C-alpha cells in the first residue's frame, strides 16, 4: 500500500517595502491571500521558519503578524500541528432584525441551542428601566449557547418580563426560536430593535462555553426589542465568535 505524502503548504508571496512596519505588511499580504481564496479555509500555513525566510524577516516580526491575524480570528494555531487558515466567516446584517434561527436557516446552516440557565428573579434596576418595568419586577433571565452544525458560535443572554410571558418555561428553548415562541404562543411580534455593537474578548467562562481561547475576539451585540406598539419586550446581550461572524451594513449615499 502506497503512503500518501502530506499536502505541502502553499508558497507565499514575499514582496515587502520600506515605510510601513514589516509585520503589518506581512499580515496584509496573508490577509489578501485569505480573502482571494489562495489560502483556503482549513489550509495549513508554512512553518514559521519557512515564512520567515520567505518574507526575509526574523521570527519575532513574523509572530507579530501572525498574532495580528489570530486576534481577528483569521488563523488558528494548533499546538504541535501548525497554523491553519480559519473557516469562512458568516455575514450577519447589522442593520436588520433577524432571529438567529431564521438567519442561519436562510444560509443553509442547521442552527441549534443549549440552555445554560433559565431563572425567574427580580429585575436588576438598569434592566427594569430599559424594559419599562417597576423596580424588582419579576423577569426571566435566559442564557443559551447557539450552535451551527453542533459547533458553539454564540452565547445568547436575554431578559423577558414574566407578567407578559407567563409560564415561558413550558416551552422547549433548545429547538425553538424565542421570537417565534413570543409570536406564536403569546401573540407578541417583535417589530424593531435598538442595537449596538462593540468588540470585546472572551473571559475564561465565555471561552469555555464557546470552545475558544481565553482572550479570543468576540462581538458583543446589545439589544432592546420592541413590539408593534413600541413597547419593550426583550433585553439581550449576545456574544458572537469573532472567527465565525462578520457584521455588515449598507451605507446610504453621501449627501
Folded structure, characterized:
The chain is of the alpha+beta class. It has seven helices and ten strands. It has a six-stranded antiparallel β-sheet with strand order 4-5-6-9-8-7. A two-stranded antiparallel ribbon has the order 1-2. A hairpin with a 3-residue loop joins strand 1 and strand 2 (82-85). Helix 1 (22-36) packs across helix 3 (59-71) and helix 2 (48-55) crosses helix 3. It is elongated and about 65 Å long. It starts with 21 loop residues before the first helix and ends in a 7-residue tail after the last strand. The relative contact order is 0.13. Residues 1-10 have low confidence and may be disordered.
Key terms:
single chain, 255 residues, alpha+beta, 6-stranded antiparallel β-sheet, disordered N terminus
Biggest sheet statistics:
6 strands, antiparallel
Q: Count of DSSP helices? A: 7
- Compute the gyration radius: what is it? 22 Å
Query: What string, H for helix and E for strand, traces the elements in order?
Result: HHHEEEHEHEEHEHEEE
Summarize the structure.
The protein has 255 residues and is an alpha+beta fold. It is 25% helix and 33% strand.
Amino acid at each position: 500500500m502506497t503512503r500518501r505524502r502530506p499536502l505541502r503548504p502553499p508558497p507565499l508571496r514575499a514582496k515587502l517595502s520600506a515605510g510601513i512596519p514589516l509585520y503589518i505588511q506581512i499580515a496584509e499580504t496573508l490577509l489578501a491571500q485569505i480573502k482571494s481564496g489562495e489560502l483556503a479555509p482549513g489550509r495549513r500555513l508554512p512553518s514559521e521558519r519557512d515564512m520567515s525566510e520567505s518574507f526575509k524577516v526574523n521570527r519575532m516580526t513574523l509572530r507579530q503578524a501572525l498574532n495580528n491575524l489570530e486576534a481577528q480570528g483569521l488563523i488558528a494555531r494548533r499546538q504541535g500541528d501548525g497554523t491553519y487558515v480559519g473557516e469562512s466567516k458568516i455575514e450577519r446584517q447589522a442593520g436588520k432584525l433577524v432571529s438567529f434561527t431564521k438567519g442561519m436557516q436562510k444560509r443553509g446552516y442547521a442552527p441549534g441551542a443549549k440552555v445554560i440557565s433559565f431563572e425567574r428573579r427580580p429585575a436588576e434596576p438598569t434592566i427594569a428601566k430599559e424594559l419599562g418595568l417597576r423596580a424588582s419586577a419579576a423577569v426571566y433571565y435566559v442564557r443559551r449557547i447557539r450552535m451551527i452544525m453542533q459547533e458553539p458560535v454564540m452565547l445568547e443572554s436575554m431578559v423577558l418580563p414574566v407578567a407578559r410571558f407567563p409560564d415561558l418555561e413550558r416551552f422547549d428553548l433548545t429547538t425553538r426560536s424565542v421570537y417565534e415562541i413570543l409570536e406564536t404562543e403569546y401573540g407578541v411580534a417583535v417589530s424593531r430593535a435598538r442595537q449596538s455593537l462593540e468588540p470585546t474578548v472572551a473571559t475564561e467562562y465565555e471561552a469555555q462555553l464557546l470552545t475558544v481561547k481565553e482572550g479570543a475576539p468576540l462581538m458583543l451585540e446589545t439589544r432592546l426589542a420592541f413590539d408593534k406598539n413600541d413597547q419593550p419586550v426583550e433585553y439581550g446581550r449576545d456574544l458572537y465568535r469573532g472567527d465565525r461572524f462578520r457584521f455588515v451594513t449598507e451605507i446610504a449615499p453621501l449627501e
